[in-house]
Write a structure and sequence with these properties.
single chain, 2 domains, 38% helix, 17% strand
Length: 387
C-alpha cells in the first residue's frame, strides 16, 4: 500500500491531510532543490512553451531541445563521454543492461543488497545472473571466476538505499577483467556526495572507462527522469536499447527543471557541504543515543536504525508525529531489520531542526535500548519499499 498522502510540502516540511505541518526527515530531496523557486519557475515557463508532455519517443517526434541540452550538461558534470536521458531510474538500469548485452557482456554479477531493478534489468537483457555477498571481495572473486570466459557486468548501488552505506567501488573495479563493466546505480549518490555533488564515483576518486553510471534525477536533483552515463560506445549501444527507443521521455519541463537544479548545484557547491554537515550532525546524535554504532557509520545523508520491538517503534513513530516530526518507519530490504526507521536529511535542514528532532527522539525513548549485538540480523534480500 502507498504511504499516507501529504497535502503540501516544502524542502523540510509536509502538510498532512488534517492540516498539520510537521518537519520531515524522509524522502530523497537531498539538495532541497525540488522546492527551489528557480527550479519551479523553470518548469512552469517550459510547460508554457512545450506543454505537459513531448508525447512520443525521442527517436520519432518527441525530442525537445531541453533533452539534448540536459544530456550534454550531465555528461560534462559527470566528466564522461556521453549521457543518455531516460524516463526514470528503473529504466536507466534496463537501458544500460540492454546496451551492455549488445556490447558483448554475458553475465550480471550483482551485490546481494543491490536494488531489485538490477536483476530485473539483467533479465530483460538476457544476462545470466549471479550474486556475490554484500561488499565481500572474496565472494565477488569466486562469482567472477565461475562465469569465465564470460564477460561480466558487476552491479552495485553507489550508496545503498536503505541505510546509506557507500560501496567500495575501487575494490570492485580492481576485480574486473579488461572487457568487464562496473555498473554503479547512483540514485542516492548523485547530487548528494562527492566533490561538487558528482556522486559516488567521484567520491571514490576513480576514473575508468569500464564504469557505467545510472541514476534517477528525481532524488538529488529533485526533478524527474533517469540517466545512463559513461564511455561513448557503451552509451551509443544503450541508445539503441528497446527500453530507451520505445518510451516517451520525461516532459521537457522536467528536463528544464533538472537543468536548473544542476546549474544551481554547480554555482553553489556549498550545498554539498551543508548536506554533509547535516549528515554528521544526525549521526553524532544517533550514536550518542546508542542507535548507531560508534564506528563504521557512513558519512551519507541516510541513517537506518531500530529502537526496539515493532510495536514500540510504531508507538514512537506516532508520538514523534504528535511532537511535530515525520520520521519514516518503513519496511525495505537491506535495512537493519525487517521494519526500521530510515532518517534522511537534506541540505535545507537547519541545525535547529535536526537538534529538535534528536531531542524529541531522545525524550520519547523511555525503555533501555537493546545492545547492538542483540539487534535482529540484517535482511540481505534486495527490493523496493513495501510499506
Amino acid at each position: 500500500m502507498p504511504a499516507t498522502p501529504f497535502a503540501a510540502c516544502d524542502a523540510t516540511s509536509i502538510t498532512l491531510a488534517d492540516g498539520r505541518t510537521v518537519t520531515a526527515f524522509g524522502g530523497c530531496n537531498y539538495m532541497g532543490l525540488s522546492n527551489h523557486p528557480r527550479v519551479r519557475r523553470a518548469a512552469a515557463e517550459a510547460m508554457e512553451r512545450y506543454g505537459l508532455s513531448s508525447t512520443a519517443s525521442r527517436e520519432t517526434t518527441g525530442n525537445a531541445v531541453p533533452h539534448d541540452l540536459l544530456e550534454a550538461e550531465l555528461a560534462h558534470f559527470l566528466r564522461v563521454d556521453r549521457a543518455l536521458l531516460v524516463p526514470d531510474g528503473y529504466l536507466a538500469n534496463i537501458s544500460a543492461c540492454q546496451g551492455l548485452a549488445a556490447a558483448g557482456c554475458t553475465h550480471a554479477v550483482i551485490d546481494s543488497r543491490a536494488h531489485s531493478s538490477m536483476p530485473d534489468a539483467s533479465r530483460t537483457a538476457g544476462l545470466a545472473i549471479s550474486r556475490f555477498e554484500h561488499a565481500d571481495q572474496a565472494s565477488l572473486a569466486r562469482a567472477l571466476a565461475a562465469i569465465r570466459p564470460g564477460r561480466a557486468v558487476v552491479m552495485t548501488d553507489g550508496v545503498f538505499t536503505a541505510d546509506g552505506e557507500p560501496a567500495h567501488l575501487d575494490e570492485l573495479l580492481n576485480q574486473l577483467a579488461p572487457d568487464d563493466r562496473l555498473l554503479v546505480d547512483d540514485c542516492h549518490g548523485l547530487a548528494a556526495i562527492g566533490p561538487g555533488g558528482r556522486g559516488s564515483v567521484a567520491h571514490a576518486g576513480i576514473d575508468d572507462p569500464r564504469i557505467v553510471i545510472t541514476s534517477s534525477l528525481a532524488k538529488g536533483f529533485g526533478a524527474a527522469g533517469g540517466v545512463v552515463a559513461g564511455r561513448h560506445d557503451d552509451i551509443a549501444r544503450c541508445a539503441r536499447a528497446v527500453a530507451y527507443v520505445c518510451t516517451t521521455p520525461i516532459a521537457p519541463a522536467m528536463a528544464e527543471a533538472t537543468r536548473t537544479s544542476l546549474a544551481i548545484l554547480q554555482a553553489d557547491p556549498t550545498r554539498v557541504d551543508r548536506l554533509t554537515a547535516n549528515a554528521k550532525r544526525v549521526r553524532a546524535g544517533l550514536v550518542s543515543m546508542g542507535l548507531l554504532p560508534r564506528v563504521g557509520t557512513p558519512p551519507t545523508q541516510i541513517a537506518a536504525f531500530i529502537t526496539g520491538p515493532l510495536a514500540e517503534m510504531q508507538q514512537l513513530n506516532a508520538a514523534l508525529l504528535t511532537d511535530g516530526f515525520a520520521l519514516p518507519l518503513i519496511r525495505y530490504p537491506g535495512g537493519p531489520a525487517e521494519t526500521f526507521f530510515r532518517l534522511s536529511v537534506n541540505a535545507e535542514h537547519t541545525p535547529r531542526q535536526i537538534d529538535d528532532l534528536l531531542g524529541a527522539l531522545a525524550a520519547r525513548i523511555s525503555a533501555p535500548l537493546p545492545a547492538r549485538d542483540a539487534l535482529p540480523a540484517r535482511n540481505p534480500s534486495a527490493g523496493c519499499a513495501v510499506g
